[in-house]
Amino acid sequence: MNLLLFESRRGHALPVLEPLPKEAFRQRRKATSRWSRLQGRVRSTYRRLEERFDYDERLCSALHHVPELTVRHSTRLGGEGARNLLHRFFKRQRLKHSAWLKVDLVLAGLGSILTPIPGPNVFFFYPAIRAFGHYTALRGVRDPGKLDRSSFAPEPLIDLVQMNLEIQMNLDRIDDIRPLLVQLERQYNLTDLERRLFPGWARR
Questions:
Q1: Closest Cα to residue 45, out of 141, 140, 133, 136?
Q2: What digits encode the pLDDT tens for the residues 65-97?
Q3: CA–CA distance, 122 with 108 (Å, rounded to integer)
Q4: pTM metric for this prediction
Q5: Angle (CA) 103 28 38, round 5°
């Protein structure tokens, strides 16, 4: 599975993961108990709402299903630089999702007191959905050996896009690099790369 690694003007990682095939998500057995049915409902609702959540969270969640990762990076960054940049990204994500998982579990626990009340229990359900999202994101980045098992390869097209990430973008320049973004999208089966890298200028 390919992960394209860009770097923001502030030196933060901007990873973009190749979409996972549907077969990567295993079908679970049909729930029988009340608790397992509730877990299934939380899980399925999260999958329906997933596109509304932060891209980094969705990427981390997807990494749990990736057995082998090939990191494509700029030639200037190099393999060791790419490894260090991605390591810092994983570390920030672990801290972020660990903290929010605790918060949302507390809120879901408090809301669960209201579950006997008829009707939709948003006080429990939404925090439970968010807790599930943070939990799955943590599963994707908590393996310390994931980067050690990953391979790193330079991608010259990333260099051309990276130069434009490091300068003040304008409408004329984004029009110039759109063909490069389209080429990367086709080569690595990506979608909406422009919105990920240039959210302020995407499709204006």
A1: 133
A2: 898 899 999 999 999 999 999 999 999 999 999
A3: 9
A4: 0.82
A5: 45
Q: Tokens in use for 10?
A: 């502030």
Amino acid present at 64: H
Q: How would you label 34-57 residue by residue, b for 16+ Cβ within 10 Å and e otherwise?
A: eeeebeeebeeebeeeeeebebbb
Give me the phi and psi of 149, to 5 degrees please: -90, -5
Number of Cα atoms under 13 Å in the Cβ half of residue 113:
5
pLDDT digits (tens, 9 = 90+) for 175-203: 778 899 999 999 999 988 988 888 766 54
Residue 120 CB neighbours (<10 A):
8
Q: Which amino acid is at 115?
A: T
Extended strands (E) in the chain: 2-7, 13-17, 70-73, 151-154
